[in-house]
Amino acid sequence: MSFLKIKNLSVDYPMRKETVYAAKDVNIEVNKGEILGLVGESGSGKSTVGNAIINLIDAPGKVSSGSVILGDLNIHEDPKNIVKYRGKKIGLIFQDPQTSLNPILTVGEQLIETIQTHLDLTNDEAKNKSIELLKEVGIKDAEKRFNNYPHQFSGGMRQRVVISLALCCEPELLIADEPTTALDVSIQSQILDLIKRLTKERNLAVILITHDMGVIAETADRVAVMKSGNLVEIGETKEILTKPKQIYTKSLVSSVPPTNKKISRFVIIEKENKSNQNNNIKILNRWNKKEIIEQDLVKINNLSKSFDDNFFTESSKNSVMAVDNVSFEIKEGESFGLVGESGSGKSTIAKMIVNLFKPSSGDIFFDNVCITKIKNKLEMMKFRKQIQMIFQDPYSSLNGRLKVKDIISEPIILHNPSISSNDLNSYIFDLLESVELSQKSSDRYPHEFSGGQRQRISIARALATQPRLLVCDEPTSALDVSIQAQILNLLKDLQEQLNLTILFISHDLPVVRQMCDRIGVLKDGKLCEVANTEEIFLKPQHDYTKKLLHLMPKIESIYN
Amino acid sequence: MFQVDNNISTWHRIKDSDIYHSFIKSPTAIVSSIILFIIFFCSFFVELITPYNPFDPSSLSLMEAFTPPSWTEDGMAKFILGTDGQGRDMLSTILYGSRISLIVGFSAILFSLILGVGLGLTAGYFGGKYEMVVMRLTDVQLTVPSILMALLVDGIARGVISREMHDEMAIYVLIFAIGISEWPQFARVSRAATLVEKNKDYVSASTIIGVSNIIIMFKHILPNILRPVLVIGTIGLALAIIAESTLSFLGVGVPPTTPSLGTLIRLGNDFLFSGEWWITFFPAIFLVILAFSINLLGDWMRDTLNPRLKK
């Protein structure tokens, strides 16, 4: 007899034009002492199911049918039940620890408030209990930290506090909605270990909602796969990940970049296999293909960048060293990866290479010319043309007020003002086809496209000037895995055929392993080590690299 | 997504948009825009609508001066809202007056919009000392009440422009005076919006491509900051019309020969104690309805275009 039973749950969102089914006839059971992973891509309804359990569906959405039975109680029968149970029998952990705590109350006050809402305890008893809880989730000096405000905790610590809040009334069911997505890898594994430990110790039933197959492989006992509101498959984690039955699960698993080996392309399983894969890229005829010369295309010498955060003093006391004395080279035609956690300065380096920021000291050489010292605008344009960038956020990187063709034509016209309008149009069409978008897309606005398609438009715009160096700043971290696989395949194809040099920046080690020839590891603005990809992954030299590799969630761990 | 027909007409796109739907669901928005449409139409085609031209002295008859509204005892059917002290038909005079008020209001707001957005956009984009100077200027400007500012401008204009020229130039002086006192609003809003937009990746992308600052500002950022600017523009329009009326009421606005709503209220004010209430009442109520409708429409726009309030 399972502890939580979700039977035929459906959630509808009646919209102006149609009703959107966020969840349709979902049947899930969770036992005590087990972690059920709920995976799916964005919009698959995984969070909807989580919210439906505690009846926190935003209007105009509503649970249209089905029941949620916790223990032996149908909690949707009486709306009063849920108010009593939310927080008491059911604990919640949200994605963003920055916003799930109230910034103007101390951690202790928030814990005591929650405890006293549900349990009949005096102030002192509640305080003792809170301190115990803080100790249990691994916060040192709990007595002192009890009186601290949320901003005095780091992201990982804050997530621990959120977990202690979720646990404070001894819940039997814990719903964790992407609990580690906003955290760095090293903190992610600590939080997951904590959740695993608590599940065993307290005999909890846990629903872990995530999009990350690596997290699922390492933590969940069973996994449920969702797609557009439907439950695709549910079963033992090992079973699902190694022998998926449904096509969707198969394609999802094959899109996850493996951590233990390098593959040439991601296998994309689609319902109708595209038979005539067009392997030649359209813009190849226009491309002034440069033969790869054995040379360093980019050479970075002792690069530093500090940000002054104090406007009035302008003294170096308050400055933050974002990049600290970094030197490396990128060979022509290779993919160079920069990895590091948030705040390690990887994006700052990218922005200095594309000349958005001026370095505080140090030089950047491109094709043996020092581009940091160029003052002449015309001279600069020559290099602007050769270095292009793809951004992380596909939503803010395209101007929503311009049509796709205007977005792509801007760089073309700027660098070739004499181009005829016919030629311009066919160039735009060629570019769109090279990134696998239809010609019709050129007359649309960016908001009509999905995240992955927008990233393709971004790539088309970057290719329009025929660059030699493409700086990719976390190009896939805002995308779902299956889309990520497509975009990575596309980048690989483009690089191969157009002899591009790529600087690939990411926090995601498996992705970097698939994409890059050489890798540099950054920590707090300093470069720890640079080596060939295989060397980094098999024989890491620096302690920090070893730690990162050890902590990265491995989907392969399921095979052992 | 790709199956959507490419040749959808603009009308269909409007009909499909959220703004249209929020419009037809809001009775306030519909009623106020109908009132505004009638007022705008009547004011701008006033020659076609009214049988009288209050500015043509030959058509005036002093015998018919001070005729009360048609529904009162001494009223005449041909003067619906009565006549003023010179025998001018009130309704025609109000419509002619509201045309002048609207022209002054629109021009003043357009002037302050161009000035404010221009300064705010460049200040937000370039930052540094230039931004500081511009923003401190708005602070200084905001410490001076707008009516006082307008009076000051008018006073200077009277000193500079000769008396004969002054009546002709009065309307331009008024537009400048109101416009100059409203621009800080636009400058602040557009600077704030620019600060948000300029850190977005599409601006970086254009910089990397090599697009010049001017083109980035006006082709990329400007269209993206127009929403909030248009909202305060609408509300500012009502303020500008009221400011014009206030100035004209104080006697520093447009001359009585080409009266605006404010001038009419001032002229009628003299007769208030002798019982001829309609001369000042109708222009005043007309001004209230006009400003109120614009404000309601502005409120609706603010709510609809605010992404945070979206349901």
Set down the secondary structure blueprint.
The complex is a heterodimer of chains A (560) and B (311).
Chain A: E1 4-14, E2 19-30, E3 34-39, H1 46-53, E4 62-70, E5 73-74, H2 79-85, E6 90-93, H3 107-118, H4 123-136, H5 142-145, H6 155-167, E7 173-177, H7 185-202, E8 205-210, H8 213-219, E9 222-227, E10 230-236, H9 237-242, H10 247-255, E11 296-307, E12 320-331, E13 335-339, H11 346-353, E14 361-366, E15 369-370, H12 377-386, E16 387-390, H13 404-415, H14 421-434, H15 451-463, E17 469-473, H16 481-498, E18 501-506, H17 509-515, E19 518-523, E20 526-532, H18 533-538, H19 543-551
Parallel strand pairs in A: 3-8, 3-9, 6-7, 7-8, 13-18, 13-19, 16-17, 17-18
Antiparallel strand pairs in A: 1-2, 1-4, 4-5, 9-10, 11-12, 11-14, 14-15, 19-20
Chain B: H1 10-16, H2 18-24, H3 27-44, H4 46-49, H5 90-126, H6 128-143, H7 146-160, H8 163-198, H9 201-209, H10 213-250, H11 261-269, H12 278-305
Helix pairs in contact in B: 3-5, 3-12, 5-6, 5-8, 5-10, 5-11, 5-12, 6-8, 7-8, 8-10, 9-10, 10-11, 10-12, 11-12
Folded structure, characterized:
Chain A is of the alpha/beta class and 560 residues long. Chain A has helices at 46-53, 79-85, 107-118, 123-136, 142-145, 155-167, 185-202, 213-219, 237-242, 247-255, 346-353, 377-386, 404-415, 421-434, 451-463, 481-498, 509-515, 533-538, 543-551; strands spanning 4-14, 19-30, 34-39, 62-70, 73-74, 90-93, 173-177, 205-210, 222-227, 230-236, 296-307, 320-331, 335-339, 361-366, 369-370, 387-390, 469-473, 501-506, 518-523, 526-532. In chain A, the strands form four sheets. Chain A has a six-stranded mixed sheet, with helices on both faces. Chain A is globular, with a radius of gyration of 26 Å. The relative contact order of chain A is 0.11. Chain B is an all-alpha fold and 311 residues long. Chain B is built from twelve helices and no strands. Chain B starts with 9 loop residues before the first helix and ends in a 6-residue tail after the last helix.
